[in-house]
Amino acid sequence: MELSDAYIASFIPERDELLMEMERFAEQNHVPIMQLAGIESLNQILRIQNPKSILEIGTAIGYSAIRMAQALPNCHIVTIERDVSRVQYAKEFIARSEVANRIQVIEGDALEVDMETLPTTFDAVFIDAAKGQYMKFFEKYASLVPSGGVLYIDNMYMHGLSDLDIKEVPRRKRTMIRNLKTFSDWIMAHPDYSSAFFPVGDGLLICLKR
């Protein structure tokens, strides 16, 4: 039995004015940000893990970075975004938040960022960027996570597309969905990670490094 949207919403706390403004901005400008049920679940799991450092791949307008920083008062977040206009909005929104001093925005393609410019390790990595590139993101940045660290990957469900036969997926999105399915099969069988799929938001994959 599926839960109703109203029932799910009853468990979501109210957000501050800045976050509400960002949610409206994202909706009006078609900027993808994490669904409320997804970010609330992610933050609760992060509170349990209690990382001191997080690398985020895919800043968008800075919404999830701010949400994670608010949930983890002792955590520093480095976030990477390649879209110039989104970087600007993210910096402006983050500057207005009370967690600005703990969030660093890096402008650039995450697949091209020089690893030497980043800290040597992160307790967690959150991947929420180009879905067809998840394998490449994971392979590049997983080395920065030590044993016991966690990689979180959003949008694994892709609004239901991942659950369809590939012939039912719109042609323009088939390569992305194939890549996503290849990645999910690969990581679930990977001996170095204990991975689990959580059906919250648009689908959250959590990979614990052994």
How much helicity do the residues have?
25-40%
Separate helix tally = 7
Largest sheet: 7 strands, mixed
Radius of gyration: 17 Å
Q: Kindly name the structural category.
A: alpha/beta
What is the CATH C level class, in words? Alpha Beta
Low-confidence stretches: none
Please report the total strand number as a whole number: 7
- Give the CA-based shape: globular
Report strand %.
Answer: 15-25%
- The name of the CATH superfamily reads Vaccinia Virus protein VP39
Strand order of the largest sheet: 3-2-1-4-5-7-6
The span between the termini is: 34 Å
User: Which architecture would the CATH scheme give at its second level?
Assistant: 3-Layer(aba) Sandwich
CATH topology: Rossmann fold
**H/E series:** HHHEHEHEEHEHEE
Overall tally of domains:
1
pLDDT averaged residue by residue: 92
Catalytic activity: 5-hydroxyuridine(34) in tRNA + S-adenosyl-L-methionine = 5-methoxyuridine(34) in tRNA + S-adenosyl-L-homocysteine + H(+)
EC number: 2.1.1.-
GO biological process, one term: methylation
Function: Catalyzes the methylation of 5-hydroxyuridine (ho5U) to form 5-methoxyuridine (mo5U) at position 34 in tRNAs.
